[in-house]
Amino acid sequence: MYDVIIIGAGPAGLTVAIYAARGGKNVLVLGDKFDSQLAMSGRIENYPGFEGEGMELLIKMEEQAKKWGTKVVTSRVLDIVYEDEIFKIETKDEHFNGKVVVIATGAHPRKLNIPGEEQLLHRGVSYCAVCDGALFRERRVFVLGYGNGAAKAAYYLSNFSQVKVLCTKKRLRAEAIYLRELEKRGVEVLTGVHPIEILGDEVVKELCYSIEGNEIKELVDGIFIEAGSLPNNDLASKLGLELDDKGFIKVDSDCRTSMDHVFACGDITGGVRQVASAVGEGAIVGVRMGARDL
Ligand SMILES: Cc1cc2nc3c(=O)[nH]c(=O)nc-3n(C[C@H](O)[C@H](O)[C@H](O)COP(=O)(O)OP(=O)(O)OC[C@H]3O[C@@H](n4cnc5c(N)ncnc54)[C@H](O)[C@@H]3O)c2cc1C
Asked: The domain spanning residue 167 has which CATH number?
């Protein structure tokens, strides 16, 4: 029986683990760090005290959690129930029991849901510039999106590809640093784009989109979709936790959910969805865990 079971091996979950394990609790983390958004984020330049690859930061966090006695099992949680005052958690191969559960399951990319998107996934369509960008060296790519994710992806891809941003809103809303760099590098940004269809057979060949009602078909080798993210809330729903209208878990200022003994932190609670905020919420939960009699 674990005192605390943390579901999610991203920055939020690993921060809880560091604090709770240092606080003397018997802690288990379930999740895959390579599946964390931080592993796909590329270079991080806005986390205080660290500038470098997201994966490097994540590995350090995991090492730190393990150093204080946290057990980390790289497994996906398939089911969770609360019975006889115990959380019973099931993965593909094992069962785990815990007294308190922390949900830190993060988020996943939002799809555009246009024809061709699913059929050509991994054949020119990608949701991760850092993972797949190198496959499009010296080739023509579009970034479809509207915010910081789109600007950051375009900035990264412009290091080695010919990039155009197709912004699906009236304005690309992103940190000034990315906007300045895109301008300096001559990256074209079209605004008010309405994507219609991704065309291709074996691989992506064209994107069909419209601007102010004018339909355009343009040749392209790769399409990177950066249309925001959606919460990984399956387990929260299984437990019957209260969610907001966008599906994020509702928490109070101590990251308590609507169910006793269940906490949530990081991107799964919504908000600004950054590494620093995930770590901040993780610290709140971890401190509470450390101080709790379990
Ligand atoms: C492309 C990109 C670039 C980014 N750039 C920046 C940046 O420059 N600066 C910044 O501050 N932030 C950036 N972010 C955001 C940042 O990565 C996230 O805010 C942060 O990773 C959220 O941490 P988290 O721990 O809440 O969730 P995540 O990092 O998403 O981790 C979620 C964890 O939950 C696990 N999980 C999910 N479901 C289950 C399940 N059923 N069972 C077990 N485990 C499960 C996953 O395996 C994963 O380990 C970027 C994100 C992306 C996608």
From this structure: 3.50.50.60
The amino acid at residue 266 is G
Please give the Cα distance from 232 to 229 (Å, whole number): 9
CA 38–ligand 1 middle distance (angstroms): 5
Q: State the DSSP code for 248.
A: P
45-63 pLDDT, tens per residue? 889 999 999 999 999 999 9
Range of the domain at 244: 2-108+229-291
Ligand 1 site: residues with CB under 6 angstroms?
7-13, 30-33, 35-38, 40-41, 44, 46-47, 76-77, 104-107, 149, 152, 232, 235, 266-268, 273-276, 278
Q: What is the pLDDT of residues 175-233, one digit of tens each?
A: 999 999 999 999 999 999 999 999 999 999 999 999 999 999 999 999 999 999 999 99
Ligand 1 centre distance from Cα of residue 33 (Å): 9
pTM: 0.90
CA distance 61 to 15: 7
The domain total for the chain is 2
- The residue whose CB lies within 8 Å of the most ligand 1 atoms, and thus the one to mutate among 41, 94, 178, 239, is 41
Last residue of a domain, one of 226, 251, 278: 226
Q: Is the dihedral of CA 108, 113, 114, 116 positive or negative?
A: positive
Q: Which of 7, 105, 255 gets mutated to test ligand 1 (max ligand atoms within 8 A of its CB)?
A: 105
How many A from CA of 21 to the centre of ligand 1? 21
